[in-house]
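User: Design a sequence. Structure:
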């Protein structure tokens, strides 16, 4: 699970639509619907289906929700909402600690890993890579690419210039180093509920 200061950082980074969806999922949870369909989430949040789908990917990237098709609050999401409800959310970290950044990286989808592999190319370090080129280099369709980019933005691993050019953030570069190191063992009871985890080579490009 993410530490409280890193949870606070993830929360501060959320766009308004993602915050609205997070609050909607809390309501759905208390109403007995742990994993509402995207259409239900969109209607409850007052968003379009597309807005809700992208917001859910942002939240998934931040480690606050999990699922596929239907999304529910993760342990991190429940913890964050508890901290907010009790007015005990600490000041955010300036950047994720190594342990939390590794956890965030391990929760990425295969599609997100494909995007990271392309953006790791030094030629995109400054100017970034545009959406059309990413489609060609990753082999992803527009919808899948948008969801992967939203997940990476939620994780804080990429920087996007007006949604057109994308490059690795400082945390994205840090993650590359962290995933190349062996992880310290974690007791199974302390691990979050499973998400769409990929073990594919992230940086093989």
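Assistant: Done.
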């Amino acid at each position: 699970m993410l530490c409280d200061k890193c949870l606070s950082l993830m929360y501060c980074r959320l766009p308004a639509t993602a915050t609205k969806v997070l609050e909607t999922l809390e309501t759905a949870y208390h109403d007995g619907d742990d994993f509402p369909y995207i259409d239900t989430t969109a209607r409850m949040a007052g968003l379009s289906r597309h807005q809700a789908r992208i917001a859910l990917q942002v939240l998934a990237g931040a480690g606050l929700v999990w699922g596929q098709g239907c999304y529910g609050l993760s342990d991190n999401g429940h913890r964050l909402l508890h901290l907010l409800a009790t007015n005990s959310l600490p000041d955010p970290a300036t950047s994720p600690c190594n342990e939390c950044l590794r956890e965030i990286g391990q929760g990425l989808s295969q599609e997100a890993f494909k995007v990271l592999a392309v953006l790791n190319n030094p030629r995109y370090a400054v100017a970034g890579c545009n959406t059309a080129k990413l489609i060609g280099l990753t082999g992803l369709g527009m919808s899948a690419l948008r969801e992967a980019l939203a997940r990476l933005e939620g994780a804080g691993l990429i920087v996007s210039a007006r949604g057109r050019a994308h490059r690795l953030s400082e945390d994205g570069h840090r993650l590359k180093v962290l995933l190349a190191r062996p992880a310290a063992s974690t007791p199974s009871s302390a691990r979050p509920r499973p998400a769409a985890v990929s073990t594919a080579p992230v940086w093989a490009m």
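Strands lie at 65-68, 70-73, 129-130, 158-161, 165-168. Residues 98-190 form a domain with the Arc Repressor Mutant, subunit A fold (CATH 1.10.10.10).
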